[in-house]
Amino acid sequence: MRSFTGSSGKPFSPEACGEARWWSAERTARCTRWTRPLPRCATPRRKKEGDRDHFLAYHDSLTGLPNRALFLRLLEQALAHCARSARRLAVLFIDLDHFKPVNDTLGHQLGDLLLATVAERLRASVRKSDVVARLAGDEFTVIQTDIVDVRPARALARTLVRALGRPFMLKGRPDDGTSPEELLQRADLAMYRAKEQGRNRYRFYEAQQGGGPGEGERNSH
User: pLDDT value at position 172?
Assistant: First the structure.
């Protein structure tokens, strides 16, 4: 395909931008007029945005771990490797105990911080060849690869239980909420606490009260 010279005096060719597009030009002695818009080359900024979108499509935005879609693809690859190498793998499913009260009483900000800290502990407890993923909420999974029997899986399960059993020291402060939904939920809980004590009274929400609106509702009847 021919290259034409634009107003800058430099040769132009669509192939340089990674796409071929038909166009025609009417040349005069002093300028070139293009009858079709010039194709736009990819810029570093667009490439960076594309890389970020691709990463978020397969990773959890909070923890940076593989999400469910990528986890399933990696599990398929690991199974294919087992079939070729006569090795085994183990899939461990982790769910946090009493995570909902953390969000209900301390707020989602500290809840997210707790999930991110859990992800760090899980990553630190496995080998580089293993996979840690977050499926949803407080549900995590681990693929333990290249094992020959159940003993390594049992040992890893014990390691993960110990790692998550240590106290979590979170930097932050409990608040009454950072979103309209949280504030409404806290106000609803305080209202039920007031109803538990009788009529014609009010209560402020207190994080140390624990529980949830459902508990107050049951006690008010």
Answer: 62
pLDDT tens for each residue of 136-146:
999 999 999 99
Residue 218 within a domain: no
Could you give the number of structural domains in the chain? 2
Closest CA to 165 of 221, 75, 94, 62: 94
Same domain? For 126 and 207 the reply is no
How crowded is the C-beta side of 195, counted as CA atoms within 13 Å? 15
Q: How far are the Cα atoms of 53, 97, 104 from residue 48, in angstroms, in the given order?
A: 9, 38, 37
Query: Which residues, in sequence order, are bridge partners of residue 5?
Result: 11
Domain at 73, CATH number? 3.30.70.270
Residue 141 burial (10 A CB sphere; 0-12, 13-18, 19+): buried
What does the pLDDT read at residue 27? 43
Mean pLDDT of 43-49: 67
Told to judge if 138 belongs to the known catalytic residues of this protein, a careful annotator would answer: yes
- The answer to whether 140 and 68 are in contact (CB under 8 A) is no
Q: Do 74 and 126 sit in the same domain of this protein?
A: yes
Chain segment 178-210, per-residue pLDDT in tens: 678 777 887 888 888 888 888 877 777 776 554
pTM: 0.59
Catalytic residue from among 95, 138, 149, 176: 138
